[in-house]
Design brief:
This is DUF4492 domain-containing protein. The chain has about 70 residues and is mostly helical. Helix content is about 80%, strand content about 0%. It is elongated and about 55 Å long. It starts with a helix and ends with a helix.
Length: about 70
């Protein structure tokens, strides 16, 4: 029962803090936009699905294993 009270107090601490923010909301919006750009846009254009295009369906693990064996000295 004590942990339930702890989580409730922690929730209301953050809830009240975020509710009273003015400048912080703008900063959080900027952070979320930057995270979207990093994870969505950059992955889409700069990190293609290398394994999916070169390995057979269901044989991804074998493809990775063969690539690791070739690169290990």
């Amino acid at each position: 029962m004590k942990t339930r009270g702890f989580f409730k107090k922690a929730f209301y601490l953050y809830y009240d803090g975020f509710r009273q923010m003015t400048l912080g909301r703008t900063l959080w919006l900027i952070i979320l936009i930057k995270l979207f750009v990093i994870f969505a846009v950059l992955k889409l254009f700069f990190f293609p699905d290398f394994i999916g295009t070169r390995a057979k369906v269901g044989g991804e693990a074998d493809f990775v294993n063969s690539q690791l064996e070739q690169r290990m000295p």
